[in-house]
């Protein structure tokens, strides 16, 4: 059965802050390709239309206008108000949704409000936790975010995690029941076909033909471990001098990382490229000899999967979701998290043994194609949706029952009007002969005091 899905995400291409934007975009497109109706509500992006069809996905980009929020949590709240406002507008225009799917805490407020307001189930994907990103909650802002994350998992009918690592973290940090969580891995999009001439010209901007390139892609924040890669650079250069490092990404740690590269005396061998879009990412992965991801915390590790799909040998750290994607010595190498020496040893192992690197590359390419295609990920997500909707239909949630009565009333009225219009007086009295519902009440859609049942019902949260 084709479903109507309302997707809530604070980022969506071309607005890309981390891996969440690409995840939501690829998942939504794959769901649309499978025949489902997907509407995405997200924040505005410079140069992008306020509304567009993107690969069969209806995308609404919402602006957060004045008055200006005082801080980031205030901005998040305002964005969520905009999401609720647009969803209500769509509802008023006759649009209906089978469920709401919210991604991370930044869409929690809208997800909860639309769950109860529209009387539809809420599914939440937790991509990462504030506790995991910071190895605990140390400030008022972190504690606030952690509370909102817990609230989202509480309100959700199902919680989707992208790895077993994240499943265990969600259970441990939020005490979420195991039977409420489903694990659906991230997917990966096959890279664009290469253009050898353009790739050669692109490579010449960063390294000589005889030099190797070690490539990093990610946000420049502590948990991504770029500082560990810089600490490893002198040891790598000592054993493989003809090496260049390209670090692509933006983040608050950028200035400190550039200063550290100068202190280590490797700044002449390191390029801080800045933000890399999809095309640039693909180009870098095709020209690099090693893709290095030294994260200290990584819920899934989609960047490693993207490198594998591009055929670039991968060195990652044995943490989080990386351990579920990269099999050491089979489709990549795993270094000890936080250890510059271990990272250097593993990177050098690939640089000095091209045959070994090629063996890992071929297996990684096969794994990415067979296990992590987006159609497969979308199909597994739909399985979660169907389980939720089956439970929803059987549930005693009063909001759901009120919605079903209202929908039955609308269908009965429409059918009665059609019959009366076509056959005249024979069906003029049809509305008076409505069957009673299971409780013996006439299915008129009223609460007994003249108000519609939806308005009169208590919108209590379900027990899930």
What is shown here, in short?
The protein is of the alpha/beta class.
Tell me about this structure.
The chain is an alpha/beta fold and 464 residues long. It has three domains: 4-187 and 375-394, Glycogen Phosphorylase B (Rossmann fold); 196-372, 3-Layer(aba) Sandwich (Rossmann fold), CATH 3.40.50; 398-455. Helix content is 47%, strand content 14%. It is built from 17 helices and 14 strands. Residues 438-464 have low confidence and may be disordered.
Number of strands: 14
Which class do the helix and strand fractions yield? alpha/beta
What are the segments in which pLDDT stays under 50 over at least 5 consecutive residues?
438-464
What's the rounded overall pLDDT mean? Answer: 89
- Count of helices? 17
Strand content: 5-15%
**What does the largest sheet look like?**
8 strands, mixed
Instruction: State Rg.
Output: 26 Å
Strand order of the largest sheet: 3-4-2-1-5-6-7-8
The best one-word shape is elongated
Report the span from N to C terminus.
23 Å
What percentage of residues falls in helices of 4 or more residues?
A: 40-55%
* CATH homologous group name of the largest domain: Glycogen Phosphorylase B
Q: Name the CATH class of the largest domain.
A: Alpha Beta
Integer tally of domains: 3
Note the quaternary state here: single chain
- Say what the CATH topology of the largest domain is: Rossmann fold
CATH architecture of the largest domain: 3-Layer(aba) Sandwich
